[in-house]
Design goal:
This protein is α/β, with parallel strands linked by helices. It contains 13 helices and 11 strands. Strand 4, helix 5 and strand 5 form a beta-alpha-beta unit. The termini are far apart.
Amino acid sequence: MVRKVLMKNMRKIGVLTSGGDAPGMNAAIRAVVRSAAAMGIEVVGFRKGYYGLLNNLYEEMNARSVSDILHRGGTILQSARCPEFKDPEARKKAIANVSELGIEGLVVVGGDGSFRGARELSISGVPTVGIPGTIDNDIGCTDYTIGFDTALNTVQDAIDKIRDTCRSHDRCSVVEVMGRDAGYIAVNVGIACGAEAVIIPERDFDFKRDILAEIKAGIKRGKEQHLIIVAEGVTKDNMSALKMASRIEEETGIETRATILGHIQRGGNPTVKDRVTASRMGVAAVDLLNQGIGNRIVAVSGDAIVDYDILEGLNMSKSLDNELLGVSEILSL
Ligand code: ADP
Ligand code: F6P
């Protein structure tokens, strides 16, 4: 690795963050800029994701431009969703901009959608490497996505506080956490915070069976406070967290409050795990580009940093660990 770091094959690369932001994206940007600097490669940072690529919003970056960002949430390059980028005609403009700037490779930090854009760029001759950044941890080819651990800790801290007041009043709390299509946040904090029920998009949902029966069984066992965690994907397709709370109150007589944690989960200083993973991924992405290798997604497999062809990576799937689901259920007694 050290030997490769000293080799310089590319002269200039670009970096951008795209899709929903996640804590640790700054650590990834810093790693890209500094590892490139160590190889003598210039770096251009595009602002606001693919929108910046289309509209030439960029800045030259060097080792000093990324000082003092490692510990900060959000992304200094900002992020955006840019539907226009799905249009091949619009993308031609981005490719022309990249070529005019003399950029020979690009690093994109984002989720599945961003990787689809990265694949299109690679096919069009701009070698592009994706780094998975999303609090949802829902990218099939990687065991871990940047931001997940920080989000878990933010949610755990919030729920611990909700529990304090729940205990004082013998109440039930319904807490909605993020996760559009995935229950990774919900299940993990369900275990960490001792939820009685965890409702996730990966499983069918039935209010009476999954919530009401659990609370009633808890009451029989002598429980006086109750915590229900529900992933956002479920409330969008079924019943809102507020509606769940009012139905619980109606049908059990227990005072119930709903809390929607929302975007608090996307901010905050990244944890050690997110900083270290993002740093390792950033270095690996530049290393690939410097070897002339594009169209890859950097990923975590066990403890190792690996990489996959983008299409192969996008076609991979992962499912919630049954052991984790089992632990969550057994301990909710
Ligand atoms: P995420 O990367 O977090 O999954 P999105 O799905 O919103 O977030 O995707 C981020 C951006 O990636 C989109 O706004 C768009 O600019 C780009 N993108 C998504 N899908 C495609 C596609 N099929 N082709 C080209 N670009 C895409
Ligand atoms: O993908 C990350 C995520 O935070 C999802 O959990 C959530 O559904 C979505 O982004 C929210 O997106 P936005 O910030 O665009 O509302």
